[in-house]
């Protein structure tokens, strides 16, 4: 019995055929487009956006007294981020300043003593000259009386008086010489003490500079223009020196993409090649980039435990070579790309083919 189809069945069949044809045509176009893309571009989806994300680290320990930023806040270079209780550091600075003043006062006392001893030495020098003259004159008198005594023109008592006077003058002369030598020696001793005090002042000034640095470290500021990331501190929290307190994204440097290409894809890649970057978050938007470096080794070579194929368990695995690509364009246009975003990278194959 011949089967008859209704008008509705024929219409459904016709529509189904058109839909199937459109799907097949679409798949064919998509396949051709995909194959053309693989032919003209070296592409990978193993790529992420990178940027300098640095921790904010305290160089001084203490209690947090103020937190002046919020997560994701834009900051400028020099903006205050955190304040640490600085009273202990200020007290250390003041103690060192007092020690410096004390040593400077000791230095003034030593300089005064040197001036006093120099005057004493000059006086002793004058006494030496006077004593020397007295001894010379008394020696002449003694010699004269001794000759007179030999000629019996002078008494023994007179000669003895001359001898005693000569001895006294000689003793006074020697005392003046000794006093002068002692004054000179004391001056040298004080000058040595002065050198010690000067060295101590230099040490204390260096220590004072260190204490001033410690006081300055209690005010933590932004090192550059950027955007704050995760915050891990609160007012009243006790922190140690070297402890990460927050993270800041540097807006003064370029953004770049690290694309991990297969080793079979990097044959024709060169520094300076152009690239197209498409982020998963913005599939309809293309960003331009430039290859700025190729890794000197595969990614696995920089791992904590690099593979060792000398054990005999060798299995050939296609390695990945990190390629660094700078994102070109104005900062405001590329700020939508955030650190860690997944992207697809396309590098034209024909740029350096012979």
UniProtKB/TrEMBL annotation:
<feature type="domain" description="CusB-like beta-barrel">
    <location>
        <begin position="256"/>
        <end position="297"/>
    </location>
</feature>
<dbReference type="InterPro" id="IPR058792">
    <property type="entry name" value="Beta-barrel_RND_2"/>
</dbReference>
<feature type="domain" description="Multidrug resistance protein MdtA-like barrel-sandwich hybrid">
    <location>
        <begin position="56"/>
        <end position="249"/>
    </location>
</feature>
<dbReference type="InterPro" id="IPR030190">
    <property type="entry name" value="MacA_alpha-hairpin_sf"/>
</dbReference>
<dbReference type="InterPro" id="IPR050739">
    <property type="entry name" value="MFP"/>
</dbReference>
<keyword id="KW-0175">Coiled coil</keyword>
<keyword id="KW-0472">Membrane</keyword>
<dbReference type="Pfam" id="PF25917">
    <property type="entry name" value="BSH_RND"/>
</dbReference>
<protein>
    <submittedName>
        <fullName>HlyD family secretion protein</fullName>
    </submittedName>
</protein>
<dbReference type="Pfam" id="PF25954">
    <property type="entry name" value="Beta-barrel_RND_2"/>
</dbReference>
<dbReference type="InterPro" id="IPR058625">
    <property type="entry name" value="MdtA-like_BSH"/>
</dbReference>
<keyword id="KW-1133">Transmembrane helix</keyword>
<keyword id="KW-0812">Transmembrane</keyword>
<feature type="coiled-coil region">
    <location>
        <begin position="100"/>
        <end position="162"/>
    </location>
</feature>
<feature type="transmembrane region" description="Helical">
    <location>
        <begin position="12"/>
        <end position="39"/>
    </location>
</feature>
């Amino acid at each position: 019995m011949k089967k008859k189809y209704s008008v509705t069945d024929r219409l459904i069949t016709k529509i189904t055929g058109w839909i199937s044809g459109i799907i097949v045509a679409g798949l064919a176009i998509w396949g051709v487009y995909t194959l053309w893309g693989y032919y003209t571009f070296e592409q990978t989806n193993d790529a992420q956006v990178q940027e300098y994300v640095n921790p904010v680290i305290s160089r001084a320990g203490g209690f947090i007294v103020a937190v002046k930023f919020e997560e994701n806040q834009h900051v400028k270079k020099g903006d205050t981020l955190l304040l640490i209780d600085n009273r202990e550091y200020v007290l250390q600075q003041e103690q060192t300043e007092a020690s410096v003043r004390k040593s400077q006062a000791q230095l003034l006392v030593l300089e005064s003593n040197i001036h006093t001893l120099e005057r004493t030495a000059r006086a002793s020098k004058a006494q030496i000259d006077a004593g020397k003259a007295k001894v010379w004159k008394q020696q002449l008198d003694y010699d004269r009386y001794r000759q007179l005594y030999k000629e019996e023109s002078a008494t023994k008592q007179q000669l003895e008086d001359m001898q005693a006077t000569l001895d006294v003058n000689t003793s006074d002369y020697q005392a003046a010489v000794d006093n002068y030598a002692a004054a000179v020696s004391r001056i040298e001793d004080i000058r040595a003490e002065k050198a010690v005090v000067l060295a101590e002042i230099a040490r204390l000034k260096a220590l004072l500079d260190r204490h001033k640095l410690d006081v300055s470290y209690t005010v933590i500021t932004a090192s550059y223009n950027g955007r704050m990331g995760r915050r891990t501190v609160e007012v009243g929290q006790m922190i140690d020196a070297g402890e990460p307190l927050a993270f800041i994204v540097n807006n003064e440097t370029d953004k770049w993409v690290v694309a991990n290409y297969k080793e079979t894809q990097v044959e024709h890649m060169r520094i300076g090649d152009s690239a197209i970057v498409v982020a998963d978050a913005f599939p309809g938007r293309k960003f331009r980039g430039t290859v700025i470096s190729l890794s000197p080794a595969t990614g696995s070579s920089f791992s904590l435990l690099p593979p060792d194929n000398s054990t005999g368990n060798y299995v050939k695995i296609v390695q990945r070579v990190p390629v660094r690509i700078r994102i070109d364009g104005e900062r405001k246009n590329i700020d939508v790309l955030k650190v860690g975003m997944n992207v697809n990278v396309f590098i034209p194959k024909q740029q350096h083919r012979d």
